[in-house]
Amino acid sequence: MPRRRFDALFLDFYGTLVTGDREAVEATCARIVDDLELPVTAADLAVAWGHRFFAAIETRNGDDFLTLFDCECVTLAETLVPWRRDIDPEPYARMLKAYWADPPAAPHVRETLETLDVPVCIVSNADTEDVLSAVEKRGFRVDAIVTSEDARSYKPHDGIFRMALERMQVTPDRVLHAGDSLHSDVGGAGPLGLATCWVCYADRIMDLGNAIPTHKISSIRDLAAILSA
Known about the structure:
Elements: E1 8-11, H1 22-36, H2 42-59, H3 68-79, H4 90-101, H5 109-115, E2 120-124, H6 128-138, E3 144-147, H7 148-151, H8 158-168, E4 175-179, H9 182-189, E5 195-199, E6 215-217, H10 223-228
Parallel strand pairs: 1-2, 1-4, 2-3, 4-5, 5-6
């Protein structure tokens, strides 16, 4: 029999296996704007908060690690400083946490996972309890889950990918990593020697990346063809 091309498939979770957080973020920002009577739109607040949040997780690795929930709280408070300095960010961050724990599945994910003949590891910038809850609720079949909380590092930092490689007992040249972020997924996995696949959905609020993926797909179903090529 021909040798299998990959020994493992790594998959991003939020925005890849489940729908992106645009709706949750925009609803949260709309609530903030209404509650605080801010002179900005919910869309503008979402972008401003997003820039601070993504900048924060670039540096929150190792000894400086903060959970995703704490990063959301800290960066929301910082974003609101020009208008309010006495805001408690936790109730609004919990609106996002509700999405993380129970997000809708992206199209065709469950049936695709059930037909793959390669071990699958979720590699996600996320708090562990949220991903575990979401995977259970959606009934996804996977072999392992590695979160930023587990590794104390956020993609594109290599720490989270190295933990996944160790957990799955595979070498980078025998792994395909697929995700919806050019910056976090393609930009993180590629330099380590993993083949990369950009899952190019159209509903991201922002993507700071310009890394070049090995493959590009618009449906998770297309992973099967890449794995069997």
